[in-house]
Amino acid sequence: MGRGGTSRALVVSFAAVLLAGSTVTGCGATGSGPAGRASPAGTDGGRTTSPSPRVTSDEDLCTKLVGHWARQVLNGRTYGDYQSMGLSGGQYDILREVVDSARAAERRGAADPGRSIDREAREGCAEWYRAGGPGKGPWR
Hints:
By secondary structure, the protein is mostly helical. It is built from five helices and two strands, in the order H-E-E-H-H-H-H. It has helices spanning 8-20, 58-74, 82-85, 89-107, 113-130; strands at 43-44, 47-48. Strand 1 (43-44) and strand 2 (47-48) form a beta hairpin. Helix 4 (89-107) packs antiparallel against helix 5.
């Protein structure tokens, strides 16, 4: 089955929303210690600073999103609108395949469909990005 994509901007904006919640900082200038004096390098008012977060690849982000929503669908916690999930059309196609496969595994008595979800989401996203990912195909 071919997988079309809508726009990478949708996925990027979803990721930005997730990151925005974790980047809120307190009042005051960054790097300033008591009474506005500069703090020693590597500290922020007595706290050590952490390195910048690593960049998540497009394929990893796709895998995490598809895996998350597959679990939600299987638990009956979503109604299936791909746009509200922050997925592109291609990612939604992967999600449907992953959910169908996980349901089949459950019917066969699989104890942990989560492993199947993770594996198939990774494989589907890897295949999708090898084929061009979002922005390629009929839904640009």
